[in-house]
């Protein structure tokens, strides 16, 4: 794994030719799918190479394509057992290296960060919602089970006297299964937001209670902030959320949206942030007008009243 950062597909990700970049992305995805037991330390070594691969990419179109390949093309294909560790490795790397990014390369890294915020919302929020096709598939499966149960019931009647009771028990079991609600507790989304709250949106710059580095046990401390990264996430948080939501004709979101869970890291930053500008920026994010339009927040009408002075304004010297 130590030589992975020097493998051809990592270097080819920064190629100016689209075919080579796409091939390298496919090779990287195949590697990550085949190595489902990669540790956080190994993924950090990989991200070290990807970070500097992105560092050396030039030309805006190449940078945009590479940012999309490393996010929207790669992350959704990762195994479920790897995706959270891969995202954690990304945010650890960004937190470590953010101060070293010069102003000429900052914009492309902000684009990469935006892409990772967006793809995470797409995976854990949009793709976690039950679609109509899935609902139709579930109903078709339940219907098939009921039909099979009815057939088994007829066979059981002819085979034994106890067949009727067995068939009724089986049918009752299917009805119980049908009545169970398909709930989504947003477990994966909670796990991802805990990474964000632990790292870039953590209100503290240094936490003495954070566990020390222990590579043998795969314990890697998460960097907090810095403020520049906090500002960027607060700026794009609602923008990227809007991209994955589905709206009806009246502009209201369709389906369940765990808005309290999504805004919890921002709320924490607003109340516990160390610096006043960070708290003010978090308040601006929470006061976004779109949250009111979508019905997630109540609009606050600010009434500005002019103070009436008890003293009359001096009009100058009179003619008398």
Automatic annotation (TrEMBL):
Region annotated Disordered, chain positions: 130-185
Compositionally biased intervals (Polar residues): 130-139
Residue ranges of the TM segments: none
Nucleus as UniProt keyword: yes
Keyword Transport among record annotations: no
Locations listed in the record: Nucleus
Major location category of this protein: nucleus
Family to which this protein belongs: Belongs to the RRP1 family.
This protein's name: Nucleolar protein,Nop52-domain-containing protein
